[in-house]
Design brief:
The complex is a heterodimer of chains A (about 500) and B (about 100).
Chain A lengths: L7 H9 L5 H19 L2 E4 L1 H16 L11 E5 L26 H8 L3 E6 L33 H8 L5 E6 L5 H7 L2 E4 L19 E6 L2 H11 L29 E5 L9 H16 L3 E5 L7 H16 L17 H13 L2 H14 L4 H25 L2 E5 L15 H6 L5 H5 L4 E8 L5 E8 L4 H15 L8 H10 L15
Helix pairs in contact in A: 2-3, 2-16, 9-11, 9-12
Chain B lengths: L6 H11 L5 H18 L34 H5 L5 E2 L2 E2 L7
Antiparallel strand pairs in B: 1-2
Classes of the chains: A alpha/beta (about 500), B mainly alpha (about 100).
Chain lengths: ~500, ~100
């Protein structure tokens, strides 16, 4: 049995056909985590006991005939900024090092209704602020393709866990590229839905107007099925939207004839690695050969997206993170002098450097005297960026683009120069500003063997168009290999004792 | 660097942000914010005088629903997360002398 070779949907079919029990599937995932995660650090918390109890519950429901669906019984992981009832949720931050939510996020409830078995919570940049998963208070995650490199971020733990075949799929969140960029770096498929498609209820907010939860998996079919499972209109999230269509898997037709695809020429210029450029142009050729109409065009305003984003996201973060004050949950400073000093000390000791940097910037741009010049200016720029996408989507069904200017950097090379790190988000950030859906699909590897992903962006509510393009591309590309060395370490993994040493959350010891 | 952040400004922002920065962190924050503002000033190249600020990408306005309680009493599990609690309440340092 080579369970790690199966996608989420394949595993779901085997469970349905009773070739494998839900407990066996969960145990196999826990074994791999026990064997591999000491090296990759994809997980902050793994709860084997909870997962196996849940697996038995799902099996009983299958046996009773009360639970059916394509992903019933399939193990999964959830990014650690998405609340899971009774399972520690830290945002990879010291300030939430011991927080156990009393409720689950709506996306997690939807997963559980569809029979998911959550094995654990994945590592991330602290409060999703970062592009490398190095700002985690619980140590960086390493890229399974080469452990000297970062997995990207902020959903680096979720992407590494899927790349290392620890779980067939995971949930991530994307505020400025945090699903698509690490998916590209880790050679997995990641989708950021249209804003409002997946409820944000229970997603610990970073930039509320930009945040979306989305699927990370091995292929496009899995992503479509997972999105179908987690998307819903939720009255508990006032920005949630009742969509007309939730049948995302119906778009997987391998037919792109007549699909109009545009490549922004202003994405292909200076700053883009040549191998990534060739990969994107290669993907364009594939779609063209399959009958799509592909051409380059000028998107415009590309260089204004990052400054606008950092004003808006930091402003929202400074407001959202005001709730962490050492009173209701999480870390409280030991020594303080009165209430206000306790707030200040708990926050200063509890938040990491990058989080404090963004709270400071956000507080500044919202302060009296600067609000119009910075915050409102950024919101006006956001309107212009949205307009430029509206013009593009009048002509094209799908925008084809890089996911990141380069492949995964080495560990330790990014945090020293935050501004430079921010510039790496140039192809993903404007998608969040405009509320659009985007998917990153593995394309090829560079000369040093690191994965390159291509991004496909759609107009609002046009997930089906990007899924159609991504699926057709994937069919032509052919099977995607696991990172080298993964299979052999997995063989060792199955011999290892189940869950040893990881059943307790690793994030507790700060 | 075009944007020079004064000690007074950083002090004020620290109060707004409820963060206590060490002398070294304060100097670093002055540099970081100044550098980011230099970069953000790029937005001034755009004429946005005729553009309305866009806070929400969709024309969604107030969303109303009936105020009906759907959850149960969770006082004890909620308090279990608190760093300190007493008699069914969050415990905080003395706020009134």
């Amino acid at each position: 049995m080579r369970m790690e070779e199966w996608t989420a949907l394949e595993l779901g079919r085997k469970i349905k056909a009773r070739e494998i029990s839900v407990r066996e599937a969960a145990q196999a995932g826990l074994d791999r985590i026990a064997a591999l995660d000491g090296e990759y650090n994809s997980f902050v918390t793994v709860d084997a006991e909870r997962a196996l109890a849940r697996a038995d519950e799902v099996q009983q429901a299958i046996d009773a005939g009360t639970l059916t669906g394509p992903l019933v019984g399939v193990p999964a992981a959830v990014k650690d900024n998405i609340c899971t009832q009774g399972l520690k949720t830290t945002c990879s931050s010291r300030i939430l090092y011991n927080f156990v939510p009393t409720y689950s996020a709506e996306a997690v409830l939807n997963m559980e209704k569809a029979g998911a078995v959550v094995l654990g919570k994945t590592n991330m940049d602290e409060f999703a602020m970062g592009s490398t998963t190095e700002t985690s208070a619980f140590g960086p995650t390493k890229n399974p393709w080469n452990t000297e490199h970062v997995p990207g971020g902020s959903s680096g733990g979720s992407c590494a866990a899927v790349a290392a075949r620890e779980v067939p799929y995971a949930l991530g969140s994307d505020t400025g590229g945090s699903i698509r960029q690490p998916a590209s770096f880790c050679g997995v498929t990641g989708l950021k839905p249209t804003y409002g498609t997946v409820s944000r209820y229970g997603l610990i907010a970073y930039g509320s107007s930009l945040d979306q939860i989305g699927p990370i998996a091995r292929d496009v079919s899995d992503c479509a099925a997972i999105l179908e499972m987690i998307a819903s209109h939720d009255r508990k999230d006032s920005t949630s939207i009742a969509r007309e269509d939730y049948d995302f898997t119906s778009a997987l037709t391998d037919d792109v004839r007549g699909l109009r695809v545009g490549i922004p020429s202003d994405y292909l210029g200076e700053g883009l690695d040549d191998e990534v450029r060739q990969a994107v142009l290669g993907a364009a050729d594939v779609l063209r050969q399959k009958g799509a109409e592909v051409e380059e065009f000028d998107l415009s305003l590309v260089e204004y997206a990052i400054p606008a984003y950092y004003v808006i996201a930091s402003a929202e973060a400074s407001s959202n993170l005001a709730r962490f004050d050492g009173i209701k949950y999480g870390y409280r400073a030991q020594d303080y002098d009165g209430l206000h000093n306790m707030y200040k000390k708990s926050r200063s000791e509890g938040f990491g450097e990058e989080v404090k940097r963004r709270i400071m910037l956000g507080s500044f741009v919202l302060s009296s005297g600067y609000y119009d010049a910075y915050y409102l200016k950024a919101l006006r720029t956001k309107a212009l960026i949205k307009q430029s996408f509206d013009r593009a989507f009048a002509k094209y069904d799908v925008i084809l683009a890089p996911a990141s200017p380069d492949t995964a950097p080495r560990l330790g090379e990014s945090l020293g120069d935050p501004l430079k790190m921010y510039l790496g988000d140039i192809y993903t950030i404007s998608v969040n500003l405009a509320g659009l859906p985007g998917i990153s699909v593995p394309c090829c590897t560079d000369a040093s063997g690191l994965p390159i992903g291509v991004q496909m962006i759609g107009d609002c509510f046009q997930e089906k168009k990007i899924l159609r393009a991504a699926y057709a591309y994937e069919q032509a590309r052919g099977p995607w290999q696991a990172p080298e060395g993964i299979a052999s370490s997995a063989a060792q993994g199955r011999k290892t004792d189940a869950g040893a040493g990881v059943s307790e959350g690793k994030g507790g010891n700060v | 660097m075009a944007n020079i952040i004064s000690d007074e400004t950083i002090e004020y922002v620290g109060i707004l942000a409820k963060l206590e920065l060490s002398a070294q962190e304060r100097e670093q924050a002055k540099k970081d914010i100044g550098r980011m503002l230099d970069y953000i000033d790029k937005l001034n190249e755009l004429d946005t005088s005729q553009v309305e600020p866009l806070s929400h990408v969709f024309p969604v306005h107030n969303v109303f629903r009936e105020d009906v309680v759907t959850n149960q009493d969770q006082r004890d599990v909620i308090l279990a997360n608190a760093p300190a609690c007493k008699d069914g309440s969050f415990k905080v340092p003395k706020t009134v002398e």
